[in-house]
Prior knowledge:
About 75% of the residues lie in helices and about 0% in strands. It contains 36 helices and no strands. The longest helix has 24 residues, at about 140-160.
Amino acid sequence: xxxxxxxxxxxxxxxxxxxxxxxxxxxxxxxxxxxxxxxxxxxxxxxxxxxxxxxxxxxxxxxxxxxxxxxxxxxxxxxxxxxxxxxxxxxxxxxxxxxxxxxxxxxxxxxxxxxxxxxxxxxxxxxxxxxxxxxxxxxxxxxxxxxxxxxxxxxxxxxxxxxxxxxxxxxxxxxxxxxxxxxxxxxxxxxxxxxxxxxxxxxxxxxxxxxxxxxxxxxxxxxxxxxxxxxxxxxxxxxxxxxxxxxxxxxxxxxxxxxxxxxxxxxxxxxxxxxxxxxxxxxxxxxxxxxxxxxxxxxxxxxxxxxxxxxxxxxxxxxxxxxxxxxxxxxxxxxxxxxxxxxxxxxxxxxxxxxxxxxxxxxxxxxxxxxxxxxxxxxxxxxxxxxxxxxxxxxxxxxxxxxxxxxxxxxxxxxxxxxxxxxxxxxxxxxxxxxxxxxxxxxxxxxxxxxxxxxxxxxxxxxxxxxxxxxxxxxxxxxxxxxxxxxxxxxxxxxxxxxxxxxxxxxxxxxxxxxxxxxxxxxxxxxxxxxxxxxxxxxxxxxxxxxxxxxxxxxxxxxxxxxxxxxxxxxxxxxxxxx
Length: 579
């Protein structure tokens, strides 16, 4: 009711407002955008056109949005204004996309696939680089062809947001384009439209001889989730290219229904473990009781593929019963099953996308039992299992397992000692300080540096001399990188000169990147100046990228000036290379 009153109030006021008043009081305020859009069909034609014209003066994106909101009979005029703007073609396409007007379709058709000479030139470029023809297109035509290809792919993306029959038909014609990038974007765009015409085109495209087109079509059908796609998706499950079969299984999970369930159960027995896992996940997503019961029974099957698939699928059911069933799988005799089980129990106990209620359904004792079970796996003979365990423990460990971690500092396996030290630092367990100091003399470099890093993280400044000495003594690149991060964890400006020396003398890019991160953690003018020096002088792109990110986080005036200078330097360099 209040919204209607606001609309009527603005309608009555508009004729009395000057152009400048409309811009200042309404068009320059985001909160009025939807109100203005709503009244465009209620006011007289002259006033509606005035609003769009003024909006284009204020902000092109705003003007384009409103251009598509006027009455259909006026859109030929408003779209014409946008088409006649003297701006870059890619911006014009973006603006026309904002209108979502049928009157924009003819222009978009021209930028999609009507410049046949440029399309042919682009094909010839590929043939030339493959050595299949001897003469390349003329240089000017060469650049025009690439530019037009970029516009065409952009147009396909834009049309995917339009919907409607005209846009769909344009995209269907683009599926036969000679340029692969345009065909790929057309398939993706059709997946966004989701009408029956688009679905039929995607079904056809799913059988394309080009694997990339086929894959994208199947993915699109899955996102749409239409029963019309069932037959082609079931056929795709038998594809000998596992990534296509995987996507088909995921799509069946979204569609659901008895046919999808039967197909997923059938292909659970596929010899490819990735397809098998995807079918298991599909059954869980559908929520079919028979399928889920079958997965439970697979946990005890002799076939490792089936056990692995069951673990993978069941992890998406975040219930205590599932957790209890999967914990024993951490000790499975098959390494692939153990790897899967590590991530599965972590996914149940602490999923990345979980709400507070999801996490709180498990008691502290249950969470602790998972962490303790994983801690025991640090001695697993498989390196990948151990790597996964460390990743998971870093995410879920807390002070409840501190006693086990303290005990692990004495373990005869150096990897266990190193991980325990690292975790004690991550969980911030202050009582571990005295227990960590002896590890600084450990024979194993990983145990030493992780203990030092943990002490730094716990705010123990007396560890700085140890870190500095380790930096001089350690030869192992990974160990040195941990030490450098430890220096940053101290947050003490006294280590800045050491970090600056690393930036100057270290040949290992990762070590220099860590030094930048350490300087960012410490902060202050000296640290900022050192990072600026790297940004403007270092030749390593990755290191400079890290420096730019750090300066963006710092956000000081000097950082902003340096970032602008770096952009200018890059532009000058590119220009010189081009000339």
